Give the backbone structure.
Amino acid sequence: MADKTICFCMAVTESQIRDAIKSKKLKTVEQVSEATKAGTGCGGCQEAIKQILNEMNK
């Protein structure tokens, strides 16, 4: 199965976001955006980023 693109503006995939959260211990959408550029275009993926963060930081 192909890696799901979360941020189409910046072409950032779910695995790139998950890897950044895990390796850099990110806690906020802003931190993920800074690390990956996801969410810095139209902002439409910020809710998806928040869901990934919530899932990984339980």
Summary: The beta strands are 5-7, 12-13. The chain has one domain: 5-56. The chain has three helices and two strands.
